[in-house]
Amino acid sequence: MEGKGNLEAQIDQLLNTEKQMRLSGDVAGTKKAVTEILQLCFEAKDWKTLNEQIVNLSKKRGQLKQAVTAMVQQAMQYIDQTPDLDTRIELIKTLNSVSAGKIYVEIERARLIKKLAKIKEEQGLIAEAADLMQEVAVETFGAMAKTEKIAFILEQVRLCLDRQDYVRAQILSRKISPRVFDADPSKEKKKPKEGDNVVEEAPADIPSLLELKRIYYELMIRYYSHNNDYLEICRCYKAIYEIPYIKEDPAQWMPVLRKICWYLVLAPHDPMQSSLLNSTLEDKNLSEIPNFRLLLKQLVTMEVIQWTSLWNTYKDEFENETNMLGGSLGAKAAEDLRQRIIEHNILVVSKYYSRITLKRLAELLCLSIQEAEKHLSDMVVSKALVAKIDRPQGIVCFQVAKDSNDILNSWAMNLEKLLDLVEKSCHQIHKETMVHKTALKV
């Protein structure tokens, strides 16, 4: 009791000093007084008085911004030294209420909410943690370091994915432009002009920009895996593969390159997929995993692929992916792989045939006539190719019906080519004649 009375007497003495300093507008003196009050409470381990004094000092009439900032920063150092979890949560909530609505301590408030959300997550309250994190819009904070902003938004995205709120996760992920990861941090450090906000240094526990890039794309892989968007997943792995420290370490880039190959094969055929397929084939590192090089080569080559022999060759590789980065390729992916091979085979057939019987098409695809017709119809509906089926005769026609203008244009082009050839031939004959005439005169 004597110790507590002594503490109260010391606090009262410092409160009188703080009042004089505050009313006279002495910034340094006020900051010193409020931090000493907090230090006394901390040394006495009187956490209840500490919380009371934080609220009390922040509500003083005409309290200086600098004093509130110093007080919040000082109290934040005590959070990790609290004796138990309840005391820690109480202190965080007190600081949170003091800093609410004050722009000059917005960064401290964001850090406090992040700590509180982490505690909630450890307690298994993921929904509460996600709601807490979404209260803060760090993208509007001018004084916060870029890496800290990105790390905070990525934490928001991760919590939304953990609670399976995919719509909000996508909205939050759009706050980060992928271009920000390609910026050179050494060139960005400019001297602030007068009147500009001074950007604070990021805390030591915030990862580097390249590490944040990897985390961002891993979270996006989780998001795209939800609706099996294979091409986007492949592009995410491609971005991870391009990170310098991953590309230099074979133990890290090899599993990523395997994933790129699998998701390229699983992605539906379109110009973007075709472009990625060709650029991946040109990668020198692909020679380290010849099986996957052969797999991609088969897709690029316009030849029919036998599904049974392909599956027997790659079945073990496919099932081994369960232990790889990003989780397993499940039964759905195996079914999709078969679908892609069938689509590839139909495209190959449409390239070499203008008309073919359904029976022969089904033989080439190793399917029944009904299945072949279904897959062909799906591709026509998705505008992957143009085809018409004559059911009574059982004939598929891959030719595009041309209108009169197209026929006239092609005829005119053919005529132009013919005249060009005639002109070139005449020129060559004339040239040879002149050469021989000169030779005879000599």
Q: Which percent range describes the beta-strand content?
A: under 5%
* Main pleated-sheet profile: 3 strands, antiparallel
Q: Specify the helix fraction band.
A: 55-70%
**What count of helical segments does DSSP give?**
21
> Which radius of gyration do the C-alpha atoms yield?
35 Å
The arrangement of helices and strands along the chain is: HHHHHHHHHHHHHHHHHHEHHEEH
| Strand elements, count | 3
Q: Decide which structural class fits the backbone.
A: mainly alpha
Mean pLDDT: 79
C-alpha termini separation? 131 Å
Name the poorly predicted regions.
none
Keywords: Proteasome
Protein name: 26S proteasome non-ATPase regulatory subunit 12
Organism: Citrus sinensis
Protein architecture, described:
This is 26S proteasome non-ATPase regulatory subunit 12. Keywords: Proteasome. With 442 residues, the chain is mainly alpha-helical. The chain has 21 helices and three strands. Helix 11 packs antiparallel against helix 12, helix 14 runs antiparallel to helix 15 and helix 19 crosses helix 20. The radius of gyration is 35 Å and the shape is elongated. The chain starts with a helix and ends with a helix. The mean pLDDT is 79.
